Each structure stands twice: as C-alpha cells, then as structure tokens.
Amino acid sequence: MEDKKQESGSQPKKAITRRSFLRGAGLSTAGSVLLTTNAFAIDYNEYPVAGEEFGPDAITIKMKVNGITKSLSVEPRTTLASALRDHLELTGTKVVCDRGSCSACTVYLDGEPVNSCMLSVFDVGEKEVTTIEGIAKDGELHPVQQAFIEHDASQCGYCTPGMVMSCVHLVDNNTNPNLEDVKKATRGNLCRCGTHPHVFKATLDASKKTI
Prior knowledge:
This protein has 211 residues and is α+β, with helices and mostly antiparallel strands. It has helices spanning 18-39, 80-87, 143-150, 160-173, 179-185, 196-207; strands at 59-65, 68-74, 106-109, 112-115, 128-130. Helix 3 (143-150) packs across helix 4 (160-173), helix 3 crosses helix 6 (196-207) and helix 4 packs parallel to helix 6. The longest helix is centred in the N-terminal third of the chain and has 22 residues, at 18-39. The protein is flat, with a radius of gyration of 30 Å. The model is unreliable at 32-42 (pLDDT under 50).
C-alpha cells in the first residue's frame, strides 16, 4: 500500500541527529551568555579607584616594627612578610605556604594577629607591627615562649613562631583560658609534625604564669 501523499505546501520533517542537537544547544548557550553579559554590563568609569598609587619603582616608606620606626625601600608587590624578612632581616617570621593557609607568618598589626604573607606592606601605614622578635621583654622570654621550651612544643620549628604569636595573643587577652580556647586560638596554625598537644599544654601552663 502506497504511503499517503503529503499535504500540499507542507515540508518533510527532518530527523534530529546528534550533530544538529549539539549545534543547536551550543548556539542557545552562546546566546544566553551574550544576553547575560549585556544585561549586567558594568561601566567601570562609574566606580573610580580611590587611594594613592605606588610604583612601578621601589619607594622608601617608614614602618614601626617592635617599637622602632624603620625606613625601607620596597616595590609595590612587597608583602609585609617579605619586608620583614628580606628588608629588615627579621627572619623569625616564617613563610611556609605563602597563601594564608598555615599562619606560620603570623605577626601583630596594632596588637591583632594577621597573616603577613597576605598583607601588602603599603597597607600597614601608621599601624605598629609586632613580630616574634618583639615578644620577649627586657631580655626575658614571654611565659608562652618559656613554656614552649619546657613542654617541647616545637619540632621542625617552621610553625613555631606563628604558634607562639597566636598563643601569646590568647593568654595576654584571656587570664583563664581553657583547652577549647587554646584550640580555637590556634585553629588556623598548621603543624605538620603533629605537636599540637604539646602546644596546648604549654599555653595552658603559661596562662597560669602570665600577670
């Protein structure tokens, strides 16, 4: 039996192939992207950049570190960690991950712990920087430093300066910390040697000796 003839003026239906489907999907996606881009286009001229520009050459700045104002010539790309280690030879501050994940580079900025590898030296401004070298006073170790020695709280030593800075900040601001307080204070400090239990004991012991 012969197939029925198509109605006058109608076109034969084309079978959907894998190639035609993918081509159509690709065009649809591209169109969506263009529509989205145009809909949310931002005129960056409406948001002028504020603040002082530096560079590209090195310039001389002043920075207060451990109570002493220092002058140093640095490029705009210089981090606080690099300025301390490479320009001021304060190598107690360690750079391990160089991306703010391990806190080995912890220093204080106006008394608050910061990751110095993530901070531009130009962002310091008038704030005072305190490093591990500035923790001891009048030739005497801070109770946390002494407790780290007594409790063998350092192994390879890379994380130790950052650990000490975090723990000193805790005991200087909490006269009676408990174990959970110490764990919270050092939660960002990575120790690959696994010496955390000794760090906890040392910090709790030091808190009893801190006035």
